[in-house]
Amino acid sequence: MIDETVFIKCLKALCPLAWTRLKFLNDKMIFDLALITTKNFQDAEEVRGDVYRKFFQGIAEFRCESSISTYLHKITANEAIDFVRNRDCKKNKTYEQIHKVDENGDSVEVDERITVTNPESIMEDKQTSDAINCAIDNLPPDEKTAFNLKVEDGKSYEEIGDIMDITLDRAKKFVQHGKEKLRIDLRDF
């Protein structure tokens, strides 16, 4: 077994065998942690590449305050979390402005729809949506109507009162009680 300080010196000297050994010793840990965090095989592979790139770029400044595997674990965790945040941020974005060059050589802004192809994400969204719809359907009729008018239709409490032929306070109570029941029913989501 090679001493870790010698191993780090070999890595800093860009020795190909040291880099191969680094990958051999840590690749499974990096991939598994990335997969646990991203919950997607292709995303985990992308994170793994980012981890090696970041480690390679920072190896000259590595101070040996921790073991290499601990350092790689920390990089992996941070890169995977950042990846998920960025992915989720993009997932919530519907349009992205893209500049393309037309036949005259001029830059033109074009709207292109971003598509989400992650089936696990789509399934989770569908399960959450089904649970919410089921919880709303289980509300008493007056609370369900008031809640739907407020949340789905964007009606004011005054409009809800007029539509349902109830007082303003009663409209507020129906919506509030509906929200409270939904919070209880959906606390696991």
Looking at this protein, list some descriptive labels:
189 residues, Arc Repressor Mutant, subunit A, 2 strands, 7% strand, Rna Polymerase Sigma Factor, Chain: A, 2 domains
List the helices and strands and how they pair.
Layout: H1 4-12, H2 16-38, H3 41-58, H4 68-91, E1 95-101, E2 107-113, H5 119-137, H6 141-151, H7 157-164, H8 168-185
Antiparallel strand pairs: 1-2
Helix pairs in contact: 1-2, 2-3, 2-4, 3-4, 6-8, 7-8
Folded structure, characterized:
This protein is mainly α and 189 residues long. Helix content is 69%, strand content 7%. It is built from eight helices and two strands. Strands 1-2 form a two-stranded antiparallel ribbon. Helix 2 (16-38) packs across helix 4. The longest helix is centred in the middle third of the chain and has 24 residues, at 68-91. The radius of gyration is 27 Å and the shape is elongated. The two termini are 48 Å apart.
